[in-house]
Design a protein that fits this description.
This protein has about 160 residues and is α+β, with helices and mostly antiparallel strands. The protein is about 20% helix and about 40% strand. It is built from three helices and seven strands, in the order βααββββββα. The protein has a seven-stranded antiparallel beta sheet with strand order 1-7-6-5-4-3-2. Strand 3 and strand 4 form a beta hairpin. It starts with a strand and ends in a 13-residue tail after the last helix.
């Protein structure tokens, strides 16, 4: 499986960088032909299922990912999220790490991915395409502010 590693430094505070990177539906806004849903809706935590559906009509596939580690950043510590790919088409895992650095923050994105039934000889081109896609996504999420999350209120 190709390992993709991306690092960014941003003037954003760690909490804001984290908020932007873990606003899962926004990932679909910046990824072509992709819509992202989250189950259960509401705050992310260990066990949350994030599903990226990519494609059009019958040519679409799901990339379900389960949050297996969730630790938002604190003033003194790093934030860390790990997603395990649970589908049958895209295999692997992804990790996001954010910590305060200077007046902004340091962001790391690591992903190991493989398309099931694709010959290993195509791992290098898959990794190259993944790097391009995830670099674009990471830069777009950090560049464009997300609307503030509203607290959920229980129905009355």
């Amino acid at each position: 499986m190709p390992l993709i590693r991306l690092v960014r430094r941003t003037p954003l505070p760690a909490a804001e960088a984290w908020r932007r990177l873990t606003d899962w539906p926004r990932h679909g806004t910046h990824t072509p032909l992709t819509r992202v849903t989250v189950t259960p809706p509401g705050p992310t935590g260990t066990g949350t299922l994030v599903v990226a559906r990519t494609g059009v009509g019958r040519l679409a596939f799901d990339d379900p990912m389960e949050v297996t580690a969730w630790q938002p950043p604190t003033a003194a510590g790093r934030g860390f999220c790990r997603l395990a790919k649970r589908g049958t088409f895209v295999l692997g895992w992804a990790e996001i790490e954010v910590h305060a650095e200077g007046g902004g923050s340091h962001v790391g994105w690591r992903e190991e991915m493989r398309v099931n039934r694709l010959p290993r000889a195509l791992d290098a081109p898959t990794g190259w395409a993944g790097r391009l896609l995830f670099a674009h996504l990471l830069d777009a999420l950090l560049r464009h502010p997300a609307p503030p999350r509203r607290p959920r209120t229980p129905p009355t």
